[in-house]
Amino acid sequence: MFRLLHVLVTNDDGINAPGIHKLVEGLREVAEVTVVAPDREMSATSHAITVTRPLRVTEYRRFGEGVIAYAVDGTPSDCVKLAVDVFMKKRFDIVVSGINSGPNLGTDVLYSGTVSGAIEGVISGLPAIAISAAGFGDFNYEGAARFAAKLINLVKHHGLPEDTLLNVNVPEANGAKELPVKVTRLGKRRYTNVFDRRTDPRGREYFWLAGDPQDYHDRPDADTLAVSQGFISVTPLHLDLTSEALLRELNSWDFD
Q1: How many domains does one find in the chain?
Q2: Per-residue pLDDT at 194
């Protein structure tokens, strides 16, 4: 008997962000959707979880009929943990985190709450996708939402290896109906950090971090390069960060 996929949606821009609403709109046409997302922006929280205070949860009704949704005063990782361990009335088939406002390319994945929401899905034993809009401001999320709907069915058909997720970045279509897709690896992205030194009304000094990304296209299959050329980048990420090369070398060191 045919059964719709049950998709858990989260993000790090907050449950009111336009990207997550467009994602749910696209997914609900092909899947059963449950949303558990932060009640405010939680960008760049990486894989933080909340252990020093209780988490508050509020039912959220703005996605329309048929979509169960909760807003959580925690991180994306908190949201996925709660969804899987508390709110899941039936098993999820896949976790989709996004659609993020702004790209998650190269080393961005280490800071990203969007990617970490997907990682938490993988830790929970579920296939997962992180999807980001490679642009800011007045971005048209419809193409990214269509691609997410297509990709969840491809993942269902082909499966993903254990401890692996897909990190997807979608550039602005600029009039194109469909964008080409390139399978990529993580590129090299570094930030020129700028700390804006300010003084508050009480005369106390504080710092506001900003910075501009610098991409180094040292490989033809880098995600940073693909997106700059107008491709949707699909990058498989694995949770095992072990350096195999150094692991072998370390075994030759004389630790005694």
Answers
A1: 1
A2: 79
- Token reading at 144: 């990214």
Residue 205 has a pLDDT of 95
- The 3-state secondary structure of the chain reads CCCCEEEEEECCCCCCCHHHHHHHHHHCCCEEEEEEEECCCCCCCCCCCCCCCCCCEEECCCCCCCCEEEEECCCHHHHHHHHHHHHCCCCCCEEEEEEEECCCCHHHHHCCHHHHHHHHHHHCCCCEEEEEEECCCCCCCHHHHHHHHHHHHHHHHHCCCCCEEEEEEEECCCCCCCCCEEECECCEEEEEEEEEEEECCCCCEEEEEEEEEEEECCCCCEHHHHHHCCCEEEEEEECCCCCHHHHHHHCCCCCC
CATH of the domain at 50: 3.40.1210.10
Give the pLDDT score at 191.
Answer: 79
Res 2: pLDDT: 60
Residue 38: give the domain boundaries.
5-186+219-250
Instruction: With beta carbons less than 8 A apart as the criterion, state whether 7 and 96 touch.
Output: yes
Domain membership of residue 94 (yes or no) is yes
Q: How far is CA 51 from CA 36, 39, 44, 55, in A?
A: 18, 17, 18, 9
**Assigned token pair, 32:** 């059963």
**Within a 10 A sphere around the Cβ of 48, how many other Cβ atoms?**
15
pLDDT tens by residue, 13-45: 999 999 999 999 999 999 999 999 999 999 999
pTM, two decimal places: 0.93
- Per the domain annotation, does 145 fall within a domain? yes
What's the average model confidence in pLDDT over 153-173? 96
pLDDT at 217: 80
